[in-house]
Amino acid sequence: MAGETMLKFVGTGQAYPAKRPADLRNEDFREIADRFAMPEAEEQASRCSQCGVPYCSVHCPLHNHIPDWLRLTAEGRLREAYELSNATSTMPEICGRICPQDRLCEGNCVIEFTGHGAVTIGSVEKYITDTAWENGWVEPLAPGPDRGQSVGIIGSGPAGLTAAEYLRVLGYSVTVYDRHDRAGGLLIYGIPGFKLEKYVVERRVKRLADGGVKFELGFDVGRDATLDELRANHDALLIATGVYKPRAIKAPGVDSKGVVDALDYLIASNRKSFGDAVPAFDDGSLNAEGKHVVVVGGGDTAMDCVRTAVRQGAASVKCLYRRDRANMPGSQREVANAEEEGVEFVWLSAPEAFKGEAAGVTGVRAARMRLGAPDASGRRAPEPDPGNEVDLPADLVIKALGFDPEDLPRLFGAAELGVTRWGTVRVDGRSMMTSLDGVFAAGDIVRGASLVVWAVRDGRDVADHMHRYLKARAAAGAAAMAAAAV
Questions:
Q1: Contacts (Cβ under 8 Å, ≥6 apart) of 225
Q2: Residue 245 in 3-state DSSP?
Q3: What domains are there in the chain, each with its CATH number?
Q4: What b/e readout covers 186-208, taking b as 16+ CB neighbours within 10 angstroms?
Q5: What is the pLDDT of residues 313-364, one digit of tens each?
Q6: Which burial class, exposed, middle or buried, applies to 358 when counting CB atoms under 10 A from its CB (0-12, 13-18, 19+)?
C-alpha cells in the first residue's frame, strides 16, 4: 500500500495552505493561512520519497520521525501519524507553525535537492496535531506514581514547559515559576498571533495544569525568593529563563523618545490582543498607528516587528539591515510575507545616528554598507561604504538586534552560579547541571538566543538528566536511612 500512496513528487507539485490576501490579513492578528484540508494533507504527504537517509529528520533538532508520519498521513491513518509525531515532541503543532522549516527539515528534503520542491512538512505537522485536538486524540497528561520529590522550574517558555511535562509524567511534583502573568514565555508575549494564535499555547499550558503541574505566575526570582530559597524548597531546580536583554545600538540619539526595544513593543501588542490595559500602547509610545516606522535588524524578531507595525496601521514600515537578503538570519518566508504586506527592506544599511527633537525621534541617518570577507558565522561581514549615507523619516524606531542573557547571578542573588563570558549559564555538557548541585539549566539561557525547537529538545534532554539525578538522590537517601536504622 505504501508503494501505491507514496513517491508522487514527480507528478504532484509542491503546495502550501493558501494564504489570505495581504490586504485582508493586514487587518487582524489571525494566522495568515488556514491549515490543509484532509485531501490536500494526504496529497502533500504522498510526495515524500521515503528516502533511505531522511535528511529531514537528521536536520530536525528533535529528530522527528518525519517520513513515517508522512506515510501514515498519506494512507489516511491520521491518529497513528499524530501518535508518532507526538512521541518526539511536546508541541508539534507549535513547531509546525513557527519553525523555520526552510532552514531545517524542508530545506534539507531530498526531493528539494532534485528540483521538485520540498514536501511541505510543517503544514502537514500542524494539520496532524490540530486535527488530533479537534478529535480528542490528545490525551490528558497522566502523572506517574508519586515519587515524593519535587522540581522547581524557573521560566515557562518551551524548554520549561517541555521539561515540566516529562518530569510530571515521571511522577515528580513540578512547580513552574514565571515573572509574567501568563505562562508560555515568548510563545505568549514575544511571537505575534499572525504566526501563532494564543489559544494554541494556552491549551498546552492548560493540559499541564490539569495534569498537576503548578504554576506560580508573577513570580520574580530574586524579588519573591532567592535561588537558594527555591533550592531549599525543591529536590532539583531547572533554570529555563530564556534570554531577554536586548542588544544595544551604539549611535548618537539612540536614547531619544520613540526609539524602543523590540520585546517591549511586541509584549505591548500581544497584551493589547489579550484585552489587557497597556498604558504605553494607549499613549502611542508602543503603538505604530499612523507612524513612519523603521525597524533595525534582520532576524525573525525584526520580521515580527515590521509585520506587527503594518497591522497596527503604520503610515510606512521600513526594515533596515546591514547585510543583503541572501545573508540575513531570518526566515526567507517571513521576508516574503512581510514584502507582500507592504514592508520595504533597506538592504546593506546600518543606523549611524537617530535624529530627534524634544517631542521624539524624527528620522534615522543610515550608513550604506558593503559585504567583505565571511566572518566566523560564514556570512560575509558588512563594512561601511563611505559617502553613501541616507536619511529615513521615522516617528518610531524599533531595535531588533537580538537578545543577550540577563545577569542571573545578580538577579537571583546567587553569585556562585557559573556563567560563560557571554553571560549564558555554564553547564556540564554531560549532565546539563550548573555549578550548583541539583540546579540544571536548558534552552536559550544556555545556548544563547535560538529556535523554539531547540528549546523543546533541550527541555526533553534535561528532564532525562534530572530524572537520573533525582533517582540517585532518592537511592542515596534510602541507603542512609537504612544504615541509620541498623
A1: 219, 233
A2: strand
A3: 2-134 (1.10.1060.10), 150-243+405-485 (3.50.50.60), 249-399 (3.50.50.60)
A4: bbbbbbbbbbbbbebbeebbebb
A5: 999 999 999 999 988 888 889 999 999 999 999 999 999 999 988 889 999 9
A6: exposed
Return d(Cα 249, Cα 257) in angstroms, integer: 15
Here the cell at position 53 is 537517509
C-alpha cell at 162: 517541555
Placement of cell 534532554 in the chain: 461
Task: State how far the Cα of 172 lies from the Cα of 164, in Å rounded to an integer.
Answer: 9
Residues forming a β-bridge with 433: 440
Which residues does 443 contact at the CB level (< 8 Å), separation at least 6? 155, 157, 158, 159, 160, 240, 241, 242, 450, 454, 455, 458, 459
- Cα separation, 73 vs 56, whole angstroms: 16
C-alpha cell of residue 480: 542512609
pTM here is: 0.94
* 102 Cβ neighbours under 8 A, 6+ residues apart: 331, 332, 333
> By CB neighbour count within 10 A (0-12 exposed, 13-18 middle, 19+ buried), where does 362 fall?
middle
Contact 307, 194 (CB under 8 A): yes
**pLDDT per residue as tens digits for the range 138-157:** 999 999 999 999 999 999 99
Cβ-count burial 387-415 (b if 16+ within 10 Å, e if not): eeeeebebbbbbbbbbbbbbebbebbbbe
* 278 DSSP 8-state letter: -
Residue 78 makes CB contacts below 8 A (sequence gap 6+) with 38, 72, 128, 131, 132
CA separation, residue 367 to residues 99, 218, 297, 316, 392 (Å): 33, 42, 14, 20, 11
Place of cell 531595535: 399
DSSP H or E segment with residue 259: strand 259-261
3-state secondary structure at position 362 = strand
Q: Are 342 and 317 spatial neighbours (Cβ–Cβ below 8 Å)? A: yes
Strands (E), 333-438: 344-346, 349-357, 360-374, 380-384, 390-393, 396-399, 403-404
Q: What are phi and psi of 280, to 5 degrees?
A: -70, -25
pLDDT tens-digit readout, 352-369: 999 988 889 999 999 999
DSSP annotation of 329 reads S
Q: Which helix (H) or strand (E) holds 359?
A: none
